[in-house]
Design brief:
The complex is a heterodimer of chains A (826) and B (117). With 826 residues, chain A is α/β, with parallel strands linked by helices. Helix content of chain A is 33%, strand content 20%. Chain B is globular and about 40 Å long. The relative contact order of chain B is 0.24.
Chain lengths: 826, 117
């Protein structure tokens, strides 16, 4: 205890009440400012702060780091302000203990200070994840001016930086470091950036923008270790990847700083517990800001903190009135040039509905979540001009009524003057309105050309005017213009039907645009091509998954959520919810060991039915879902892998015994079948694909009703394509005859790759060939160089595809998919 | 007869894949707990009103699921089949609290009784 302090306490005793504020941050000082505004002379105020400086605007640390602002510009209250308002500031001397009985706080220096009312505004601490190397020099958090100074110093030396955490703070740190010339990588645990504020679509746009700024983003990346013996040299992820770094910024989140309150035996949850009056479990002690927990909620954004500060001030001034009842948090990313805003609850839930507006040309994405006719949450990207208006609607919580229909178009349209019907909207456009931004084609020119040249399809409009010929994002508008101009006469051209109700685009356009615009994820496609639903449907999602897999082999990450159950669980669902399992038997050939293993599995797992399939395989029917991984493990142990009998994939290669045994056989069809199956197994296709090889023209393997059939003749191998049994039987077309086994494999791979690249999802080879014509197929494959290129692309894709999905799951992958989340006893 | 419904902690939100579902086994049959793209949570009996297909294995899109057996589309909020199909799967109340998924299940009810979402 110092004499100076006892004196101070006594001076005030009997005079003004003493208010002590612990924390010189934004929330505490805002509360003091509010208090001074409504009751200036009431308290003798003492403020303790951990940082040795005046009060500054912490949310402006990002512009400070990015060198867009100087410290003086982000200072809120300089030392003169404290003096002028009679506030005693103890900067750089944090409080270390509260004695509630004596009503005295003790600072680190030993200084004691008595209080009548105490305000806790201790803020929050950055979370440092407990990985090895977290104490190394060169690792900083992003919380105060000192952190920024450390980052600025590091960036002056150049080199590279890793930011751990792709949330608000992490991205702002990354942007600042990149702006200061560091090679910057963001490592983020979740599947997309800012997952608490953004949905996947907006996060994808953001990722693209950051990439343009030279920032590398790694999502789904779990940090294992900070590397370096003496100071940081890099970051190692749990998947083994290592990223070199001279600076590591840990920005994974904040934790309310409630240590002082806890030691003083105040009630503490995640933060200091307060009621609506911002009062803690001790009626003389209030708390404000990031250190508090109110109605189960902790806040890390500035707006709610300021609302709390108002309540604190009014209570300290002895006034009643509205308490703090919680707040709708709103987020704005402070990265210059990136317009991103989110607010409220956009997590959906029962009874909520989505309004999605995408404008790929302008890079705009808006998602509004409504419940019971009221705005509940929103995400805006690319155009945040109306954010304040939306936030007002959100906070008012009133029924939207007629406003609902035009809500997505923003405030300017909210009067109801603009129609919602897109066709009427197009009709109302002036002639000079630009339809195709890429090629500068206006509405008047398109309408005039349709009339003059008698155009009836979007294809023709594209050919005549170039509208929608480049990026294709105006295809929908062109269709609308055709409909408006031709009226009843307009029919969507056959074969150009949309994939589903989620999009106006047809399969071929989507594939073309995936390649042309290098779209590499499902959210990217949906954003760029203006999908009308947030995440597609059961028709378009599997199609997009296949198209992306085909377009970017080895690069695109297969999405389980875009797969039909059979392809997700690698077994065939049956009518009773059990599954069937078909092990691969290369070329339809098996052995005693395999049969014995199958018999053991059947008995061990009490599998009710064993059936031989049309494709020369053995089908185990009625396997319970939870048994699948064990069944596979046992089959794997005997050398058998997935037969892919469940997938839009290469199914089987059926063979006859050929020249090895048959007295008519001309060539070894079984060996050829096995070779083809070894080459093609595991490949994903637009639809199921079946192969067969017959050893002579008697064709016992029925090769001429297969997708790719091979029939041996004395002089070589006849190749047939585009056949199938099934609902509509189609015999193959004869493609050509080749002489060597190598040529058979080359043509097979080339043909399958052509089919993979050109057919529409769920179109088998038979309808595909009927649609495009055998001549087209023959023409594509006739040139030896081009044929070899198709074959090469097939093998490249196979390099990534030939992984046994059973072995992965038998080893424990996706184990949770096979067992219940929980079991509840009666 | 009075109906007692209790909230049962069935696991962490992260244990359910986005755009997916997990099953909770109960004495009255499986309940499918869905997590949508926007982290909405819904729970239905794991039986399609059409032929009893396991809805938990369907493709989840928006706030709907497509049954894996015959492509009926079931609205997750109501359990009702999307037109022109007709039928309804039984709903259960489900909510999220501090990252944990809580499912409302009847504690001692007969086979007819259940929660209301």
């Amino acid at each position: 205890m110092t004499t100076q302090n006892s004196r101070q306490g006594q001076q005030e005793r009997g005079g003004r009440e003493r208010l002590v504020v612990i924390g010189n941050g934004m929330a505490g000082m805002r509360a003091v400012e509010e208090l001074l505004a409504i009751d200036p002379g009431r308290y003798a105020i003492t403020v303790f702060g951990a940082e040795p400086r005046g009060n500054y605007n912490r949310i402006m640390l990002s512009p400070l780091l990015a060198a867009e602002k100087r410290f003086e510009e982000i200072l809120l209250n300089d030392l003169d302000w404290y003096a002028a308002n009679g506030i005693t500031l103890k900067a750089g001397d944090p409080v270390v203990a509260i004695d509630r009985e004596r009503r005295v706080v003790t600072a680190r220096s030993g200084l004691e200070c008595g209080y009548d009312r105490l305000l806790l505004a201790t803020g929050s601490d950055p979370i440092v994840i407990p990985v090895p190397g977290r104490d190394l020099p060169g690792l900083v958090t992003f919380r105060d001016v000192d952190d920024v100074a450390a980052m600025v110093a590091a960036s002056a030396r150049g080199g590279s930086a890793v930011v751990i955490g792709g949330g608000l703070l992490g991205l702002e740190a990354a942007n600042g470091l990149a702006a200061r010339g560091m090679e910057t990588t963001v490592v983020h645990l979740a599947g997309h950036l800012m997952e608490r504020q953004l949905d996947a679509s907006a996060a994808h746009l953001l990722e693209g923008e950051l990439a343009r700024r030279g920032i590398t983003v790694l999502t789904g990346a779990d940090t294992a270790e900070i590397l370096g013996p003496d100071r940081v040299t890099g970051v190692r992820l749990k998947d083994g990847r290592e990223i070199p770094a001279d600076l590591v910024v840990m920005a994974v989140g904040i934790r309310p700083n409630a240590a002082l309150a806890r030691e003083a035996a105040l009630e503490v949850g995640r933060g200091v517990l307060v009621d609506d009056d911002m009062t803690t479990s001790d009626p003389e002690i209030l708390a404000v800001g990031e250190c508090v927990e109110h109605r189960g909620q902790c806040y890390g954004l500035v707006a709610p903190l300021f609302e709390m500060a108002k309540v604190v001030a009014s209570r300290l001034a002895g006034r009643d009135g509205l308490g703090f009842t919680g707040s709708v948090p709103a987020t704005k990313l402070k990265v210059s040039g990136v317009d991103l805003f989110s607010a409220g609850d956009f997590s959906g839930g029962p009874g909520s509905e989505d309004i999605v507006l995408r404008d790929a040309g302008r890079g705009v994405y808006k998602r509004l979540v409504l419940a019971e006719g009221r705005l509940r949450g929103l995400v805006l990207y690319g155009d945040t001009t109306d954010s304040a208006w939306y936030l007002q609607l959100l906070r008012a919580g009133e029924a939207l009524g007629e406003l609902r229909d035009s809500l997505a178009f923003g405030r300017a349209y909210a009067g109801g003057a603009v129609t919602q019907d897109p066709r009427q909207a197009v009709a109302a456009l002036p002639d000079e309105a630009e339809i195709c931004g890429c090629n500068g084609v206006c509405k008047g020119r398109i309408v005039e050309t349709i009339a003059r040249a008698g155009l009836t399809s979007a294809e023709q409009v594209r050919a005549h005017t170039k509208a929608s010929a480049s990026c294709g994002s105006c295809s929908g508008l062109v269709e609308q213009l055709l409909a408006v101009t031709l009226g009843e006469d307009y029919r969507v051209a056959e074969g150009a039907e949309p994939i589903c109700g989620c999009t106006p685009h047809d399969h071929d356009s989507v594939r073309r645009l995936i390649l042309a615009r290098e779209l590499k994820t499902i959210p990217a496609v949906m954003q760029a091509l203006e999908w009308s639903t947030p995440d597609g449907c059961h028709s378009c999602r599997p199609a997009l998954n296949y198209y992306l897999l085909c377009a970017w082999p080895g690069e695109y990450l297969d999405q389980a959520a875009a797969r039909f159950v059979n392809e997700r669980l690698h077994a065939n669902i049956q009518k009773d919810g059990t599954y069937s399992v078909v092990p691969r038997m290369w070329g339809g050939q098996t052995s005693a060991a395999e049969l014995r293993a199958i018999a053991d599995v059947v008995e061990r797992y009490a599998i009710p039915t064993v059936k031989v399939t049309g494709g020369q395989r053995i089908d185990l029917l009625g396997v319970r879902k939870q048994d699948l991984p064990s069944v596979w493990r046992d089959l794997n142990a005997a050398g058998m892998v997935s037969g892919h009998a469940y997938g839009k994939a290469l199914r089987t290669v059926k063979t006859c015994v050929g020249s090895e045994w048959c007295r008519f056989g001309t060539r070894d069809s079984t060996a050829m079948g096995i070779a083809l199956e070894r080459m093609t197994w595991g490949s994903w296709m637009p639809h199921k694909v079946k192969l067969a090889v017959s050893g002579c023209p008697r064709n016992c393997a029925e090769a001429t009703i297969k997708d790719f059939g091979v029939v041996a003749v004395e002089s070589g191998w006849e190749l047939h394509v585009g056949g199938n049994g099934g609902m509509k039987v189609r015999a193959c077309d004869r493609l050509c005859k080749v002489e060597t086994a190598e040529e058979v494999k080359l043509w097979c791979g080339a043909f399958l790759q052509l089919y993979r690249e050109e057919a529409r999802y769920l179109e088998r080879t038979a309808p595909w060939i009927e649609r495009v014509g055998l001549e087209h197929v023959a023409e594509r494959l006739s040139d030896p160089d081009r044929r070899a290129a198709y074959h090469r692309r097939f093998l490249e894709s196979q390099r990534h595809a030939q992984v046994d999905p059973w072995a992965e799951r038998a080893a424990g992958a996706e184990a949770e998919a096979f067992r219940p989340l929980a079991s509840v006893e009666g | 007869m009075s109906l007692v419904i209790s909230w049962i902690d069935v696991g962490a939100l992260e244990a359910i894949p986005r755009q997916g579902a997990r099953v909770v086994a109960t004495p009255r049959g499986d309940v499918a707990v869905f997590r949508t793209h926007d982290d909405g949570l819904f729970a239905l009996d794991d039986r399609c009103p059409h032929r009893g297909g396991p809805l938990s294995q369907g493709i989840v899109h928006g706030h709907a699921v497509t049954c894996p057996l015959h492509n009926w589309v079931i609205e997750l909020a109501s359990g009702a089949a999307r037109r022109p199909d007709e039928g309804c799967s039984h709903r259960h109340a489900v909510r999220l609290e501090r990252g944990r998924v809580l499912l409302a299940l009847p504690a001692d009810a007969g086979p007819e009784a259940a929660g209301h979402g």
